[in-house]
Every structure is written in structure tokens, then in C-alpha cells.
Amino acid sequence: MVYNLRQIHRNYLTKRRLCRKRLVTKHGHCNIEYGNVRYSNLFAFVLDFWNTFVEIRWRFVFVFFVASFTLSWFLFGLLWYWIGQNNGDLSWQNPSANHKVCVRNVYGLTTAFLFSLETQTTVGFGGRDITPNCPSAIALIIVQTLVGALINCFWCGVVMTKIALPKNRVKTIAFSEMAVVCLNRGVLCLQIRVANLRKSLMIGSQIYGKLLRTTSAPEGETIILDQVNVDFRVDVGKDNLFFVCPLTLYHVIDKTSPFFEMSVDTLNLQDFELVVFLDAMAESTSSSCQVRTSYLPQEIMWGYKFLPIISRSKEGRYRIDFSNFAKVEPTITASSSRCINDENYHYSTNCFDNYGFVAIDIDNPINTKM
Fold it and tell me: Could you say which residues are annotated as the site Role in the control of polyamine-mediated channel gating and in the blocking by intracellular magnesium (predicted)?
């Protein structure tokens, strides 16, 4: 029991340490912090208030939603109180019996607030209503009705936009937790699996990657987050993917690849982050979206391959088994890309990890001639 708790705690600390090292999390969020931002730059967020409200969290949307309506009711309640005071309608002003009021049954701040709420929400309980004796009251009820309609339209737009954001669609696009390095048709490849969990297609899908690492320039300058392009493709190409079923994406590790100098022994010693992007358009909404994920060296398994996931039933229908989506199995793989690209790689005894092969030396070969 104690061992299991220690193992769980160790795994938690490992995942937390890896999460801090990432620029892009496994769910696509950018792990970056802004510092020393000037107030003039912050004011730009106020000017771009629409995108600001769309991008903030739901809890802040709810707070601003309640605050905007409550504040508008209170401000217009003060105006109704002011109109009643100027006309002598309030109870502490002791109006006469034949006094002509602007709004019936508004004789204090509380009743003015209630009339403001009933007017803007078009409830109209019937206890308080406007009279034609005050032109200012008629003008104010028109203004409050228009302001209330604008506030309703604004928050309906914000809520609908947040619900229909393309980033909500990308939650149904899943990448494999681990990447693998194995042979594919005689070529060493880095492979990643991606799946669309909805039956609606992603149109015009394009996949590409960026390798982020810290490098040193010839002038001695240290370049943080140096970006190197990493091309991914499937068997049919890398553009306009037919994303109707889970796809296995692969990057060929050749002399132009940034992984060419790496091997099974040096991979975990590297310091880089592989960020994979999937740009596509949702078929149902025609909105473009981008899915992101990242892989650290510890999340790349050398010498493994993904298990098959697509099969056909007896009725001839295609069946996708998501239980094998992230499962891998060991396979014979070159220990580095140099072994594959070397013309004499098949004579090397250290290029392939084949545990069932035993090499022996024959000093006296047998003469088979008769």
C-alpha cells in the first residue's frame, strides 16, 4: 500500500515537472507568461472589448452578466427617483391629493429601482406605471428600453459565440499520448496517431510540426525557442487529408530531419519539444480551427509501433477499435537513422535491436563440395 502511494506521488511529480517544461500542453494550451506589460497595452484589451469578453472564462462572463444588468437597473432607478423628486412625487415631499405624478406608486428609491427593473425586463406587474404628465419620463422609458435591448443582444452574442467557438470542436480531436519511432517501408519514421471522435468530417485538414529547442548562433547568441519545421504526412500525402477515420502520421527521419543525429541512446538526453498542429475546417459549421499538442523526448518511444485500429466486420462495415488507439508493441527498429542511410548498414551488428539474433564466429567453415 505504501509502495503504491509512493509510486502515485512520484508519477504525479513527474507529470507536473514535465508540464512546467512545456510550451504547449497536451491539450493545446500555451504555457507562457507575460511580464512588464505597460498599461497602454492593457488599454488595448479594453478597446477590443468584444474579443476580450469572448475569450475570458465563463465565471467572469457570469459575473459581468449579472453586474451589467444590476448596474443598469440601479442607474436608471436613480434617474426615475430624480424625475419623481423634481415632480414632487416622493412620499417625503408630501404631495397633495390632486397632485399629478409622473409614475404611479413610485415614492422612494426602492420603488424607483423596482420600476426600473420592471421596465427594462418588460415584466410590468401593473402596480407601477408611467403617466403622460411628464415628457422627461416618456423619453427616459424609451432610452431604458433601447439600452436594455442592447445589453440583451450583447450578452446573447457573447454566449452564443463562446458556445460555438472552434476551440470547442477541437476537443473531439484526439492525439496519441506518446509518439513512436519505428520502421515504415524500410524507412525510419517518427509516428503519431490522431483521431476525429465525431462522424462529421474535418475538411481541408493539414498537419505540420515545429521542433522547439535552444540553440547557439555562430555569433555566440543563445536562441531560445528556435523553431525548426517538421513535415508530417500519411500514405496519401500531407495536404487535404481524408479525415474520416484515425490516421497515423509519420515524419521520415532522413538527412534533412532534425532527428537525424539522434539515436535510441541519446534521445532522452535531448532538450526539445515537438509541437504538432492540425489545421482544419469543421464540416458542420464551416469554421476553421487548429488542434495542438506537444511531445517531449520522454514521450517518444523508440522501437515501438502502434497496434492496428481499423478492421472490417462480417457485414462488410468498417469498425474502429479505440481501445487500441494509444497501445503500442515493440518491433525491430534501427537504433539510429545513420544505420538506415549507411550503405553498409546491413553488415552492422549494432544497428538493429533484434533480441532473438545470436552472432557466432565460424573459424573452420564446412566444405560442402563432394
Answer: 152
Angle made by CA atoms 279, 280, 282, in degrees to the nearest 5: 150
Cell reading at 278 = 492540425
Q: Using CA atoms, how far apart are residues 54 and 157, in angstroms rounded to an integer?
A: 9
- Going by DSSP bridges, is the β-strand pair 304-306/328-330 parallel, antiparallel, or unpaired? antiparallel
Beta-strand relationship, 202-216 and 288-295: unpaired
Rounded (10°) CA dihedral 43, 44, 47, 50: -120
Same domain, residue pair 144 and 179? no
Number of domains in the chain: 2
Sign of CA dihedral 236, 240, 242, 247: positive
Domain end residue (candidates: 163, 197, 226): 163
Instruction: Give CA–CA dist 34/28, Å, rounded.
Output: 18
Supply 328's cell numbers: 503500442
β-bridge pairing 179-184 and 300-302: parallel
Residue 127, pLDDT > 60, answer yes
Q: Which of 75, 82, 67, 68 is nearest to 113 (CA)?
A: 75
Same domain, 153 and 228: no
Encode pLDDT of 267-315 as tens digits.
Answer: 888 888 999 998 888 877 778 888 899 999 989 999 999 988 888 877 8
